[in-house]
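README, section 4: Worked example with a bound small molecule

Sections 1 through 3 covered apo chains. Here we extend the same pipeline to holo records, where the ligand is supplied as SMILES alongside the sequence. The molecule in this example is zinc ion. Nothing else about the input changes; the structure line simply encodes the ligand pose together with the chain.
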Amino acid sequence: MDFDGTITRNDVVDGILDRFTTNRNWEKIEQEWARGLIGSKECLTRQLADVRLTERELESYLESVELDPGFLEFEKWLCGQGIDRVILSDGFDYFIRKVFACREVPHIPFLSNSLRFEGGRLIPDFPHAGESCGRCGHCKGSTLRSVRSRLGHVVFVGDGLSDLCALPESGTVFAKGRLAEHCHTNGIACHEVRDFRDVQRGMETALQEVLAGRNR
Ligand SMILES: [Zn+2]
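The generated complex, written as structure tokens:
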């Protein structure tokens, strides 16, 4: 599952850019990315170059980030069912760790880009950019392909354009927002959801159907 805008209500990176850049240039750069003119590596590097903030401001913003209203319950439900989960993010490890730490969310494995705070600046790095498609900093499609043989049925939950590469690698897709719009426009099968309460209901129904099929 995706992190920014999926597990969190809003995109954490956009929230940082909105509050802590000195100009609105980041929105123009975001448009270039959305139109496919640049990849996320270039997009995020250029956007973060304009960010200036103190460590206290960063901590305080990350403490204010809201989670999806059904996420914690969903996470407990997955654990109870023994279903493996992993967060695939084209955002940053620093934000995922801090957002979870201040809400005492138990450890969830994740793969993302990395970030360090240094002298009032945020310095990004892209350790998973290896087999990238050119669009993503961390390509979720490439990551899923690399572990395909070890996976069973893949259920993906996402909300945005950085999730597109995961779609062909996933057996079932739950989509919020722009990802749902993209799926509808392009005839890609997905379950449109508002939050993780809908995802959990959808997965419970699917599991019941599988069990009923087995007992038939
Ligand atoms: Zn990609």
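What to look for in the output: The chain has a mean pLDDT of 93. Residues 12-215 form a domain with the Rossmann fold fold (CATH 3.40.50.1000).

Section 5 describes how to batch many such records.
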